[in-house]
Structures are given as C-alpha cells and as structure tokens.
UniProtKB/TrEMBL annotation:
InterPro entries per UniProt: Rap/Ran-GAP_sf (IPR035974), Rap/Ran_GAP_dom (IPR000331), Rap1_Ran_GAP (IPR050989)
Domain Rap-GAP, chain residue ranges per copy: 132-354
Keywords: GTPase activation
UniProt name for this protein: Rap1 GTPase-activating protein 1
Keyword Zinc-finger found: no
GO BP term (any one): regulation of small GTPase mediated signal transduction
Lineage start: Eukaryota, Metazoa, Ecdysozoa, Arthropoda, Chelicerata
Molecular-function annotations in GO: GTPase activator activity
Annotated segments matching region Disordered: 1-20
Gene for this chain: RAP1GAP_1
UniProt cross-references to SUPFAM superfamilies, sorted A to Z: Rap/Ran-GAP (SSF111347)
Compositional bias ranges of the Low complexity kind: 1-18
A GO cellular component annotation in the UniProt record: cytoplasm
Short name of any one Pfam family annotated for the protein: Rap-GAP_dimer
C-alpha cells in the first residue's frame, strides 16, 4: 500500500507540468491593459465625434464622444484626454440636462460639468482619428528589451562577479531555452533591442521571442561582450543597466538575491528565478521558485501574484506565467515618476500638435502637412 501511494504521488508530480494555462487565462495571466487602448477598442472605425479645446488650466483637451444603446437605454461613451490623465466611461443620457438628440447641447453640458474654458469645439479634420491612434500607439509598446543575469553560489552582492560570468551552465541554458529562441544576431531582421546585427559588436547570439504579438529581446549577461580588462563590464552593463525589467537566474539553494547587485538608474523591477544545482533524481522534475522586487516608485503590484503561487515545474504554463510577469512588470514600472514624466512630456507635445492643427483648420480650412517628427516608444 505504501509503495502504491509513492507511485501515485510521483504520477501526480509528473502530471503537474502538463497543466493547462487556459483555465488561468481570464484572470491571473492577463496583461495589464493600457488606457491608451480604449480609443482603438471603442471609437476608431466607428461613428464618433472628436471635440477639442485649449483649456486655461488643463491645457490641451480632447473629448471623443459616441452614442450607443445599452439595455434599451441611450448612453454616451466618453473619452476625455488631457496632458496628465485620461477619463473613460459611459454616461446615461438621462443624467445629462440636455436634449439627448442634440449632440452640441450635450457637449456644451459636458463642457460645463468639466468646467472647460473655452468650451469644446467640434474637430473637422478627417485625419484626426488616425492621429489619435498614432498618439496612443506610442504608449502601447509591442517591443520590449529585458535583462537576464546569471547568479552562482555566493554572488548575491557582487556586480563584478555576476557580470563576470561568461559561460552558461546547463541549467542556465535550459532556462534560456524556456524564455525564447536562441538567435544569431548577424543579419537578424526583427526587433533588435539595441543590439548590433551587422558587425557582432554586441555579441554573436541572443535570446528572442515573439509572444502575444509582443517582441521581446533578452539582454543575456553571458552572451554580451566580455572584456577581461574591464572589471566593471561596461559593455554588459550598458545594455542590462538601461533595461526596466531584469530576470535574475539564481543557480543556488541558499544564495540570497540583492536588487542592488546591478547599479542602475533605469532598472525598476527584478524577477528572481531560483533552481537547485543538485542533480535530479530519477523521475524528478526541474523545479523553479520565483520572487519579485520593485523600486518603491512602482505604484502597484501586478499579476500574476506570488501570493497565489511562487513555485513551478518546468512547463509551458510556467513559461506563460513568467512572460506575463515580465511584461506586466514593465508596464507597472511605467507608473514610476521617472517614466511618467517622460510620457507626460511626449503626450503633451503630440496632443498640443493635434489640437493646434484642429484649431487652425477651424479658422482657415487649411489641411496640415503630415507629421514628420520621429517619435519612438519610451523605455
């Protein structure tokens, strides 16, 4: 009977990596949504109207308005943009003190509720929806660069020792294969993440994945150029130190992780993945434990939460879980003041350009030339 119980436990362990992540997709494995996704999801390509003003206090303001019927009742779908915040939601027509069939009266009432001076005016440039979509897409990043460092026994606080690791252990190689595909950099024609794909100046290989329509290039410490005469390993730190999220792979049972091990102004989130270097017994499966640490400036926790689970067997589910954690870590880090200020400056300039063109068109009827400014995603 005891032998039967042991066999049953082993079978249960072997079945764990086969768990399906489909059952978790609607909750714990959701990506953090951007407020910038609302316009494309609810307005773009549908009948709606864009109103604008240059408010005395708020500066550039844009209101997108759409009429719809929910549960046989009239509603207005409203998206209000300012430089520093966005409001989005639905308003029952019955709550607005204006004729629901008089759109201009509705907008005048909304201007008064929001205390906008001067009041909102209808934008009539046909290019406005496309320009608003371009504005939003700047902040919806589909290309990420993520650091990966390799930590051995006793290296928890030594940046020089960690970045001095130049060879992969079999366990680290196995983990990298879980993250993505090993690619040759020379001639690589997808997202490069700042790596050189012409002269091999940043190494010859890297790890890359296309996942949920997001391209991720991993800056792997052991794959970046290793200069023996440079104790600070600046060639490696130049890339990893300018990432926002870093994955720390710890091949040790008792080595602690210290987020100050890599000194960086940009790194805001570390995801530490630990596995034991001890050889696996027959039938035993590779197991990983995960922890996460963020700077205080990152203003909220992000899914999937470690309180729900922090230990995993090697499996497709663990890969999905880890990539969600990485991408959500990046998105949550944008809430830090350093990145929020950068986004506000970019949003302010672009919103101001759109509203200036709308105002000029309202007065002169002139169609502006297409934007030639080369805006790039932040981070």
């Amino acid at each position: 009977e005891m032998q039967a119980q042991v066999i049953q436990q082993q079978q249960q362990q072997q079945q764990q990596p086969q768990e399906s992540f489909e059952q978790f997709r609607d909750s714990s494995l959701e990506l953090i949504s951007f407020e910038e996704e609302n316009y494309e999801k609810h307005y773009y390509g549908r009948e709606h109207w864009n109103y604008f003003t240059n408010d005395e206090m708020l500066g550039p303001v844009m209101l997108s308005l759409k009429q719809e019927v929910n549960n046989q009742r009239d509603h207005f779908h409203v998206l209000l943009r300012t430089v520093s915040y966005t409001l989005h939601g639905t308003i029952p027509a019955s709550t607005i003190c204006a004729d629901r069939y008089d759109r201009e009266a509705i907008v005048r009432e909304l201007s008064e509720i929001a205390k906008l001076k001067p009041p909102l005016m209808l934008g009539q440039l046909p290019s406005t929806p496309d320009e608003l979509l371009k504005l939003d897409h700047i902040f919806i990043k589909t290309e990420l660069k993520v650091g990966v460092i390799y930590i051995k026994q006793g290296q928890e606080e030594s940046e020089e020792a960690i970045l001095g690791n130049k060879e992969e252990s079999p366990l680290f190689t196995e983990f990298l294969d879980l993250l993505g595909d090993r690619i040759t950099l020379k001639g690589f024609d997808r997202y490069k993440g700042g790596l050189d794909t012409v002269h091999n100046l940043t190494g010859t290989e890297s790890v890359y994945t296309m996942w949920r329509n997001i391209e991720i290039m991993f800056h792997v410490s052991t794959m970046l150029p290793h200069e023996e005469n440079d104790p600070q390993k600046l060639q490696k730190k130049r890339h990893i130190g300018n990432d926002i999220v870093c994955v720390a792979f710890i091949e040790s049972d008792d080595t602690l992780f210290w987020p100050g091990c890599i000194k960086s102004y940009f790194l805001h989130t570390f995801i530490a993945v630990r596995t034991s270097p001890k050889p696996l017994k027959e039938g035993e499966l590779r197991k990983y434990s995960v922890s996460c640490v963020c700077r205080n400036e990152v203003q909220y926790a992000f899914r999937p939460y470690l309180v729900e689970r922090d230990e995993f067997f090697k499996s497709d589910y663990f890969r999905e879980w880890l990539l969600v954690k990485i991408v959500n870590g990046e998105r949550a880090s944008y809430s830090a003041p350093k990145f929020a200020r950068m986004q506000d400056r970019t949003r302010s300039q672009l919103l101001e350009d759109i509203i200036t063109n709308l105002a000029n068109h309202l007065v002169t009827g002139q169609i502006p030339k297409p934007y030639r400014r080369g805006w790039r995603p932040l981070g």
